[in-house]
Fold Beta-glucosidase.
Amino acid sequence: MSMRFLSLFACISLAFALPQTQVSGGNSYNISILSPTSDIPGTTPPTTGSPTSAAATTSATSTGATDSPTPTFVAGKTTVEDLWAQIEKYSPVLVAAKSNLTDSTKFDLPPNPPTFLPSYLSENTKGLKFPKGFRYGVASAATQVEGAAKEDGKGPSVWDYGPHVYPDLYLGAPDVTDDFYHRYVNDFARLKAMGVNTFSLSLSWTRIYPLGSGQVNEAGLKFYDKVIDEAIKNDIQPIVTLFHWDTPLALSAQYGSFMSMNITDDFNNYAETAFRRYGDRVKVWITFNEPRVFCSQTAGNPYNLNFPSGINATNAPYHCSHNLLVAHGKAVKTYRSLVKEGTIKAGQIAFKGDDNKPTPWSNSPEDIEASNRHADFFIGIFAKPVYIDGDYPTTCKETLGSFLPELTPEEQKLIKGSADFYAQDLYRINTAKAAPNGIKACAGNVTDPNWPACQDGRVEYSSGAPGGWGYGQQADPRSNWLVNSWFAIREQLKYLSKTYPTKGGLYISEFGWAEAFENQRTEQYQIVSDYGRETYYRDYLNEFLLSIHQDGVDLRGVFAWSLYDNYEWALGLTQKFGLQYVNFTDPALPRHFKRSFYAMRDIMQHHLQPEDFNK
Ligand code: GAL
């Protein structure tokens, strides 16, 4: 790792309040740069070298280049091929082996797994139903499942660049991953067996605009035509996210992507192309996935490679937030005018937030304030402008000062009201304790390790209960942020729906579990016996039902992350979140159902209105 990235990373951690306990992997921080050796308690260092799928074969020859690169892009001159060549100078982009799963709707559904949890555990929700029309689904993202990184004219994103050019920072590249690109027909057939009525996918911007703007790629557009049609054919409603972190490399090299206001027009143009093409079939749109996570990392490799003047690693996350909000606002405006003029069918649009309002560590006013501040910095910084009044929370403005660009009156007007429903990726709730030296001192000191939210980073996650207890059942230690916190879910849903009420209701747009040490299991029966994940889903679904029936929360849908194991960002194929196991060592990339797949199916079949369960 070059010194440049080491020092850059240090600055970013400081500026966007990444907790001291940050590790490689994790929902809030899951796209962080890997440390060369693991510093995670209870784990061994990640294996060196890139575990790539056995389905992969090389499409080019590596020249073994080792210099420290910045991609070159000259507008009007640099081609997609030039950009790929800059990547393949370091290592070849792999392609999937041909498989008989392509276009196949055949699969074996093994008999139900042996019973695990006693039925009295769900006694309190017996007979309760999810409301009519409830969206039950799974979620995915283009980079994480598609593969075919270089196929049919797709241009490179920053996620094609970073892992190839800095292989020490990533456990592999997403060249092939699950090869959804070729195997989606089989994948939908399998999903139907789970009874889902919804599939949340993202489009790859560079499949549609290989250079981010300019020439559109018809082959890329056709691919999503086929995917959307296949979903609908299976009675599965597609929900489409426009941006799940895969910034076009060309735009990053050209003007610093989300560091620049230029991104707003390029994003809007891409969004408009997608609305016009798929607006007849797609009724629910998401502009951005987890902007807070994305922007917290955007000053570093691979999210951005180029700072325009006046932007540095310290203020970059806030310029990103600002530009992204404006990009969201513009795209929503475009969407609504296309609907209004009758070009596309009416639907709904929003963005997906993440994180949570933590449980205060104690009843002390300072701990309660720490929890409120956390909610402002992690949720409110995007949600308040969109859902309430067009402007950032006061805490954020006061603490961040000139780091946070002001939203002009025109921008506020554009952003306010730019969402039809509220979507939150809600994996877990954590705890908040005031920073050790007090919130006031911390908030005024940009070098304080807990600045700007000013909660004590040491007790946020796993060690989050007073008395030295863990806060709840822990996931894989490499996702130390993830705790089965079912006991705090109802309060959270009450908070979200009260703070950001919408006519379109609330969606849990992602939730899921990284089973502890799943990656170290060697026997298939062990891998598919994911008791921790089964428990997690059972617990959360139970709480969702109670939240609807006892708290009156307008919850309209929940999407599990993820349909199968996939490319978990810097952790590559090694961190598993799937309801299905994918054997990446077999060239056919066979999928196998896990216990959790059956658990979700059975619970939802029991609690959905019969017509909402996809038979
Ligand atoms: C989410 C993210 C997904 C996935 C998941 C599990 O934050 O949107 O892409 O990585 O976390 O870590």
The CA atoms of residues 583 and 589 lie 5 Å apart. The radius of gyration is 23 Å. The domain at 19-355+415-430+474-612 is CATH 3.20.20.80 (TIM Barrel). The chain has one domain: 19-355+415-430+474-612.
